[in-house]
Amino acid sequence: MIEQYEAKSILTATGGFLATYTHSLNAYQGCAFGRNSCPYCYVRAMPIQRFSGAPWGEWVKAKINAPALLRREIEHAKKKGLFGRLRIFMSTATDPYQGAEAGLKLTREILQVFHESGDFGLLVVQTRSPLIERDMDLISALGGRVAVSLTIETNREEVRRQITPTSPSIERRLETLAKLTRAGIRTQAAISPVLPCDAEEFAVLISARANRAVVDTLIDGDGACGRRSAELGMQRILASYGYQDWMTPEAHLPLLDALRNRMGIARVGFSQDGFNLL
Ligand code: SF4
After folding, report:
1. Backbone dihedral region of 57: left (phi > 0), alpha (psi from -120 to 50 degrees) or beta?
2. Cβ(194) to ligand 1 under 6 A?
3. 40 CA to middle of ligand 1, Å?
4. What's the CATH number where 141 sits?
5. Cα gap 269→248, rounded to integer Å
6. pLDDT in tens, 109-124
7. Domain membership of residue 139 as a residue range
8. Of 41, 52, 129, which is best to mutate to test ligand 1, by the most ligand atoms within 8 angstroms of its C-beta?
9. Model pLDDT for residues 233-263, shown as the tens digit of each residue
10. How far is the CA of 170 from the centre of ligand 1 (A)?
11. What is the strand order of the sheet 60-63 is part of?
12. Total structural domains in the chain?
């Protein structure tokens, strides 16, 4: 059941790990990909989930007036001379291409608003969903002002089935990444967080399909030096599959090295800084 409601605003001033962005944009609250999946998702520990009254992944609310709000807030930014400096991360607490988007098309309408609005700074679209292919026409038309960051945590399909079973298959996401890159769209593979994987094989797959990559970990990327991941039970979950060695400060290093060897240091970011695209 998708609840629809009218929000009061759509651009949220940001900071923290997204230091180079001015705003985040979440057209949805909740995320259906999280249903018995994405156990590391830090939104699980945020007030929006704690007070939701339902398990994470089992509720989604759509801000049905998000495109209209964006149009209004862009006009406001233009009047203040700030529009050209807008750097927006979509999304920080949901996936803009989760299942509900197939019917509601809020994310598509948002891209349309940006397309009609002129020259803003940067829009980064963060998703794990091949549904983004539907909007390649608009994303291509926006040119270098948009970058797509596609989450792929591992190259091992059995790991995906164990830890993120509601996510699209690895093969399907790699295909999406390749399609976007071939279309001339700026792409980033977000290996975030790194899950058990084969470093060299994974680096070969990513380097052939993405313009750049960012590697993040359960310890460096949770904003609390691993405490939040621990509270979410990640050590126990990984250990239950025999992956206890993957929540250490060094576990990601072979993959980071392999990617940097293939793509060059400038094209491979690490942890929170790595998400701050130029
Ligand atoms: S897709 Fe992203 S926002 Fe959604 S549950 Fe997974 S990690 Fe959380």
Report:
1. left
2. no
3. 9
4. 3.80.30.30
5. 19
6. 999 999 999 999 999 9
7. 2-274
8. 41
9. 999 999 999 999 999 999 999 999 999 999 9
10. 16
11. 2-5, 60-63, 28-29
12. 1
Q: Does 48 sit in the ligand 1 pocket, CB within 6 Å?
A: no
Is any ligand 1 atom within 6 A of the Cβ of residue 31? yes
pLDDT at position 225 is: 87
User: Model-level pTM?
Assistant: 0.97
* Nearest residue to 269 via CA among 149, 171, 173: 149
Q: 171: Cβ–Cβ under 8 A, 6 or more apart, which residues?
A: 157
Q: What digits encode the pLDDT tens for the residues 184-241? A: 999 999 999 999 999 999 999 999 999 999 999 999 988 788 899 999 999 999 999 9
Token pair in block for residue 103: 């019917």
| Residue of 31, 166, 173 to test ligand 1 pocket, by largest number of atoms within 8 Å of CB | 31
Per-residue pLDDT, 76: 97
Instruction: Report the SS3 class of residue 24.
Output: strand
Residue 151 Cα to ligand 1 midpoint, Å, equals 10
Per the CB < 8 A criterion, the answer to whether 13 and 76 are in contact is no
Distance CA 214, CA 225 (A): 18
* DSSP at 125: E
Q: Is the CB of 153 under 6 A from ligand 1?
A: no
Q: How far is the CA of 25 from the centre of ligand 1 (A)?
A: 15
Mean pLDDT across 5-13: 97
Question: How far does the centroid of ligand 1 lie from the alpha carbon of residue 228, in Å?
Answer: 15
- 95 Cβ inside 6 Å of ligand 1: yes
